[in-house]
């Protein structure tokens, strides 16, 4: 009874501190794995000894295996074939050529710098080819890099995990079989890798097909039961693959996740949410348990050669791999530099290294503890250094999603077309979508790109390039329709910025407003009023630069004109980035604001005074705004 209570208490502590690390990471806006590693070391063999994973015996391996299966399934479930298609060449190269470069480079570095024997050096190289979705995913969400960069890093993390784990197992089996030649070693490694990947892929796709068809027909199941059916299916497929051929289960779970994501399951979004929470719990528990096994004294025994090995892996081998694998891609040098820097190792490296340490010791082969220690040193160095510097580097390189340009605008209304022309004039790509053929024809006649279709059609949004655009703007005359369009687009594509014309008096607790990056451009009534002004030609188009001198007076004057209904801010250019303005937000120093000014003079009087047609308006400083009165 005392033994079982001791294990129960350790599990409770693991969960408490694992979730506590997630809370602390969210509060401090830092990668959660940093605190998971710290808490694990403090609670484990090198600290308070409150958590002792050795007490779990074979149960620890079971926990690790089933948890990793869930983690990789969830990673596959979040990989869209559409997004992967955009980076397929680079991703294919990273999983194949990149794996080989890391295996060879890591092995050479471990032998020459850390003085590992060749067999252990290349075992280390096989263990660190993986990056891992458990670390990369949360890191990318926190940093919020451009979508193409995020897709490449997340795709690499998910797909390379099973490849790396299988490669490491095959290398270990080759080490155990010492009576073969080098040529035979290479052939066996290649054949073992291909065979396990093939078996895992076949079982994963087959299991995904069966589960998908069952869920589509089982309408009698509640949401909770459906989620549990998927969980049982994941473990069933993992077990079937492992029973067929050892270490093929990881590939099976990834393949199953990707298949289910592409099969249009009912309530797919709710399934992702459930699996996301489950994955968060698994990651929290696993990192605490595996870090608790660490002995800090073993790091000292490794020497500086091991530190240099990890440094070479980060600063030399990874950049070379990225340079070769993305040579012909559309990524610019800033994006390539960021991808070359971000390669933190995660739970698969940790779990497989811990297992190998035990297997090597059981076979009487020296170096098991050294392998586990250098792998955990790699995890800690890459996580701490790359995790803590990722966000500043992304901002420095200007590859966060806030720097993504271009817009898809729904609604070829007069105001929508004007916003599109302003964006185009600033060198940004814009595509308008409207179901009204006459409105689209008007937009095209003005030199704009317009597609006549329904914005509810996801294929139309793909054609418009929504995945590469920085903003989605729902600017139709119907506020309720705009909300539906915005919510659908967020669920399907999650663009960096979403702007809508909202219904009048929209409640502040509307679910859409809880999404980060969503902002209300203006209310429906105001939008219709200014659309009519544009149709009647009762406007002027102006721009003004907010300077430090007299800023408060300039802000007050602008807000007074807005409140009186005479001025409507359209866009502001801040630090080189364009965005729709917000009437309730004061401009900052250095902001350039583009606006409409109501000009109610009759058309004939304006023509006699030389005013231009609204269709050919160009923004210019207007005296009514520039000449700030002294209050």
Termini, distance in Å?
Answer: 81 Å
Oligomeric state of the chains in view: single chain
| Strand order within the widest beta sheet | 3-2-1-4-5-6
Q: Which spans have pLDDT < 50 for at least 5 consecutive residues?
A: none
Output the structural class.
alpha/beta
Structural notes for this entry:
- The protein is of the alpha/beta class.
- Helices cover 63% and strands 9% of the residues.
- The chain is built from 25 helices and 10 strands.
- The strands form 2 sheets. Strands 3-2-1-4-5-6 form a 6-stranded parallel beta sheet, with helices on both faces. A 4-stranded antiparallel beta sheet has the order 7-10-8-9, sandwiched between helices.
- Helix 8 packs parallel to helix 16 (347-362) and helix 9 runs parallel beside helix 11 (249-261).
């Amino acid at each position: 009874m005392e033994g079982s209570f001791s294990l129960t208490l350790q599990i409770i502590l693991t969960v408490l501190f694992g979730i506590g690390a997630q809370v602390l990471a969210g509060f401090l806006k830092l990668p959660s794995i940093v605190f998971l590693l710290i808490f694990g070391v403090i609670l484990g063999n090198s600290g308070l000894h409150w958590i002792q994973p050795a007490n779990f015996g074979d149960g620890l391996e079971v926990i690790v295996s089933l948890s990793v299966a869930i983690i990789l399934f969830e990673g596959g479930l979040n990989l869209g074939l559409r997004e992967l298609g955009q980076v397929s060449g680079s991703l294919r190269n990273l999983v194949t050529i990149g794996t080989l470069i890391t295996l060879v480079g890591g092995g050479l570095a471990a032998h020459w710098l850390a003085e590992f024997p060749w067999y252990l050096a290349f075992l280390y190289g096989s263990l660190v080819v993986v990056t891992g979705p458990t670390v990369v995913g949360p890191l990318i969400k926190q940093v919020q890099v451009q979508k193409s960069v995020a897709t490449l890093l997340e795709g690499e993390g998910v797909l390379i995990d099973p490849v790396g784990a299988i490669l490491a197992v095959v290398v270990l089996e080759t080490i155990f079989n010492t009576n073969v030649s080098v040529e035979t070693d290479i052939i066996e490694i290649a054949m073992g890798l291909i065979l396990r990947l093939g078996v895992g892929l076949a079982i994963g796709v087959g299991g995904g097909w069966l589960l998908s068809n069952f869920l589509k027909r089982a309408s009698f199941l509640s949401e909770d039961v459906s989620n549990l059916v998927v969980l049982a299916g994941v473990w069933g497929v993992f077990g079937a693959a492992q029973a067929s051929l050892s270490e093929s289960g990881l590939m099976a779970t990834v393949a199953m996740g990707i298949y289910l994501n592409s099969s249009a399951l009912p309530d797919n979004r709710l399934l992702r949410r459930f699996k996301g929470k489950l994955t968060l719990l698994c990651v929290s528990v696993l990192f605490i348990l595996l870090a608790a096994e660490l002995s800090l004294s073993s790091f000292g025994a490794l020497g500086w050669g091991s530190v240099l090995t990890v440094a070479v892996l980060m600063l030399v081998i990874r950049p070379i791999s990225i340079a070769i694998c993305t040579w012909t891609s559309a990524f610019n040098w800033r994006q390539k530099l960021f991808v070359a820097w971000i390669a933190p190792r995660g739970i698969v490296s940790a779990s497989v290294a811990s297992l190998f340490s035990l297997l090597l010791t059981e076979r009487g082969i020296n170096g098991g503890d050294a392998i586990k220690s250098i792998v955990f040193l790699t995890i800690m160095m890459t996580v701490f250094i790359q995790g803590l510097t990722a966000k500043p580097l992304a901002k420095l390189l200007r590859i966060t999603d806030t720097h993504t340009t271009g817009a898809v605008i729904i609604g070829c209304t007069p105001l929508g077309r004007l916003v599109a022309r302003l964006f185009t004039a600033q060198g940004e790509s814009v595509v308008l979508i409207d179901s009204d053929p006459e409105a689209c024809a008007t937009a095209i006649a003005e030199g704009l790109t317009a597609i006549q279709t329904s914005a509810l059609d996801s294929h139309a949004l793909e054609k418009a390039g929504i995945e590469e655009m920085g903003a989605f703007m729902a600017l139709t005359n119907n506020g309720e329709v705009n909300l539906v369009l915005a919510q659908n687009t967020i669920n399907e594509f999650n663009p960096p910025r979403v702007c809508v014309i909202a219904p009048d008096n929209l409640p502040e607790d509307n679910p859409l407003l809880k999404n980060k990056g969503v902002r209300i451009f203006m209310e429906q009534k105001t939008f219709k009023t200014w659309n009519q002004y544009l149709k009647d030609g009762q406007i002027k188009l102006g721009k003004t630069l907010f300077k430090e001198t007299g800023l408060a007076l300039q802000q007050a004057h602008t807000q007074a004109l807005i409140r009186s209904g005479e001025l409507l801010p359209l866009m502001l250019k801040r630090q080189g980035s364009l965005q729709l303005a917000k009437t309730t937000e004061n401009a900052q120093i250095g902001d350039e604001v583009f606006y409409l000014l109501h000009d109610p003079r009759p058309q004939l009087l304006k023509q006699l005074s030389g005013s231009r047609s609204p269709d050919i308006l160009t923004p210019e400083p207007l005296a009514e705004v520039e000449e700030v009165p002294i209050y």
